[in-house]
């Protein structure tokens, strides 16, 4: 592998906000589905999906361990859906991380629900025992009409099944919902069914982002031509409806990604009343609300 740095990155590189201090370890390039019309993360020509060569991944792990030593605490397996790899390959990667990076406390990955259909609970439990602690599941919505419009390739039930399987295996789940994805016409059912999905699966973490299209809306509108975006009051009302519908026992809730206008943080359900009050106050008195300035928002 040329160069001094132990890992070969193909730009752009993405990771969840909570993985800011993690070593980003690509084990695949791109996304194996890559048909979601709202997602621009892996559409660049250089991001065509493929599994990385096993020898390259192992060499990256070994060299990263040698270079970074005891500085490493977390590793994020990139790109879009590392769990598409066969279980035996993932186990080999996790075992190498444990051998060459003994101070690592958590390994995590993005996870498409579809890629768990071929993995049993027993296999996932093996991955958990080998170090996979957290899976980020982009549910986007719990509403089947919205999911079909945006070509997600999933349904309420397929996402629910994947989240339940992860829970049974003991792998923590971070679920993401896209505020505004259904537009004005489907906003209410998007909020209601997203809350229903969360209530039935009780994820350890739940986050919201605001849908946006830095590269333009043409790809998105090909499947959703009548989509009308929510303005800021509409986004706040949708958030209010989502929070109203959530009945969670102990889920860390975050709406603090840079795409969000209003930063919300708390634990559901203990902080539900406070979070709802924050949203309602922003609706009633927008001139006093602590909105993120437009220039600071983005993906």
Structure report:
- This protein is 36% helix and 17% strand.
- With 299 residues, it is an alpha/beta fold.
- It has a single domain (17-296), classed as Alpha-Beta Horseshoe (pyruvate-formate lyase- activating enzyme).
- The strands form 2 sheets. An 8-stranded mixed sheet has the order 1-4-5-6-7-8-9-10.
- Helix 6 links the parallel strand 7 (172-179) and strand 8 (205-210).
- The model has no long low-confidence stretch (mean pLDDT 94).
Assign the CATH class. Answer: Alpha Beta
Integer count of domains = 1
Physical arrangement of strands within the biggest beta sheet: 1-4-5-6-7-8-9-10
Q: Give the uncertain stretches in residue-range form.
A: none
Q: Characterize the biggest β-sheet.
A: 8 strands, mixed
Give me the CATH superfamily: tm_1862 like domain
Structural class: alpha/beta
CATH architecture label name: Alpha-Beta Horseshoe
Count of alpha and pi helical runs: 9
